[in-house]
Design brief:
single chain; alpha/beta; Lyase, Ornithine Decarboxylase, Chain A, domain 1; 2 domains; nine-stranded mixed beta sheet; 12 helices; about 25% strand; globular; lysine biosynthesis; amino-acid biosynthesis
């Protein structure tokens, strides 16, 4: 648990606001973010990069809420986007289009036009076909598109296979062996301007060695291009630095940056980084309330009002999120999460037991956490930790469930930054055939 979410007299706070007060005012499920935590993580990058020409492009897919984008925009961030919708969000939040890099394997003509009209910093191109399309669209608009090839270095990120992006079998980027030929091709296309090279090998990395291995392979390509007269303005080494969900020990931001800078010593290109999860993951929690306790022969279930539509990561990746009570009995520390084993039988009212924490969605895969030691009762409040990244941004309306409210805490003040959806909103754009 970060310093920005902490217990005071047995009650869990976000900065200086009790989470119970947020639940009472805005209901549950509810995402709660700490502005101070967001700011601190960004400034750790900025301070570590002082003296080096750089741009920190927040990976919008991690959490695209306008309030969060605005916090980073005010701090001077750029943005890494993967859709036209994300570009519109960045602009609506006060972001600078000239600090936007556009990644993604399937950019449509409409999205390319939108980005060219906005005058973004760079397109991170992921295929030969995309190079051709960019050139054609830019020609039709009388513009020149700034491009960087996303090169796949075939480096094992040692992370979950669903979020590993730098291997030969992944859909992302252009093959390392084909990169030089594609740069030669791009240099001849009249409506493209080569500006850099991009590399992103995956997410939730907890070691620096894959980053350094990828950087060294990219630098070797940069030298080959320079020998041919193709000089790059920037190197985009992506993001992917992990956070602590359970017992992971990812490197500190400063140590990670120091190793990258050491690998780049003597290089004059501008450095672009694309951190996402590391900036927002531990800056947010998901508040949820226990609806029922159900004690079975083999397992006990804590049925809460948050579900897989609110937080998809456990169902999608079997991802772990720590779950803690908002109010501790007798001001005790939260119980550790043990390995899975059978429940301890039916107990009335407030119970200390091993629970499957599950939601009301009609899917067996709808769970928030397995085999958690919790002392809870119906209507107890729980906080799902490390929920700031890929929580709200991946949420859905499955089972016609309105998406959660979002609250940002700033010191003693709580700001409602997204209203809870109403059911009527979910079908307002639909019609029946008469």
């Amino acid at each position: 648990m970060s310093d920005y979410f902490h217990y005071q007299n047995g009650e869990l706070y976000a900065e200086q606001v009790p989470l119970e007060d947020i639940a009472a005012r805005f209901g549950t499920p509810c995402y709660v973010y700490s502005r101070a935590a967001l700011t601190d993580s960004f400034l750790q990058f900025a301070n570590a990069l002082q003296g080096r020409d750089h741009l920190i492009c927040y990976a919008v897919k991690a959490n695209s809420s306008l309030a969060i984008l605005n916090v980073f925009a005010r701090l001077g961030a750029g943005f890494d986007i993967v859709s036209g919708g994300e570009l519109k969000r960045v602009l609506a939040a006060g972001g600078d289009a000239r600090k936007v890099v556009f990644s993604g394997v399937g950019k449509t003509v409409a999205e390319i036009r939108l980005a060219l009209e906005a005058d973004i910093l760079c397109f991170n191109v992921e295929s030969a076909a995309e190079l051709e399309r960019l050139n054609q669209v830019a020609a039709g608009m009388g513009k020149v598109a700034p491009v960087s090839l996303r090169v796949n270095p075939d480096v094992d990120a040692k992370t979950h296979p669903y979020i590993s992006t730098g291997l030969k079998q992944n859909k992302f980027g252009v093959a390392y062996t084909e990169a030089v030929g594609l740069y030669r091709k791009a240099a001849k296309l009249p409506h493209l301007r080569i500006t850099g090279m991009d590399c992103h090998i995956g997410s939730q990395l907890t070691e620096t060695s894959p980053f350094i291995a990828a950087a060294k392979k990219i630098l070797a390509l940069v030298d080959v291009l320079a020998a041919e007269g193709i000089h790059l303005e920037h190197l985009d080494l992506g993001g992917g630095l992990g956070i602590c969900y359970d017992d992971e020990t990812p490197p500190a931001i400063g140590d990670y940056v120091a190793e990258l800078l050491a690998a780049l010593r003597g290089r004059g290109e501008k450095l672009i980084l694309e951190p996402g999860r590391i900036l927002v993951g531990n800056a947010g929690v998901l508040l949820t309330r226990v609806e029922y306790l159900k004690h079975g022969e083999e397992k006990n279930f804590a049925i809460v009002d948050a579900a897989m539509n609110d937080l998809m990561r456990p169902a999608l990746y079997d991802a772990f999120h720590n779950i803690v009570p908002v109010r501790l009995e007798n001001h005790a520390a939260p119980l550790p999460n043990p390995p899975p084993h059978a429940g301890e039988g039916a107990i009335e009212k407030s119970t200390s037991s091993i629970y499957e924490v599950v939601g009301p969605i009609c899917e067996t895969g709808d769970f928030i956490g397995h085999a958690r030691s919790l002392s809870i009762a119906p209507q107890s409040l729980l906080a799902v930790l490390s929920a700031g990244a890929y929580g709200m941004s991946m949420s859905s309306n499955y089972n016609t469930r309105p998406r959660a409210a979002e609250v940002m805490v700033e010191g003693k003040v709580m700001h409602l930054v997204r209203k809870r959806e109403e059911v009527e909103q979910l079908y307002s754009g639909e019609s029946v055939v008469v």
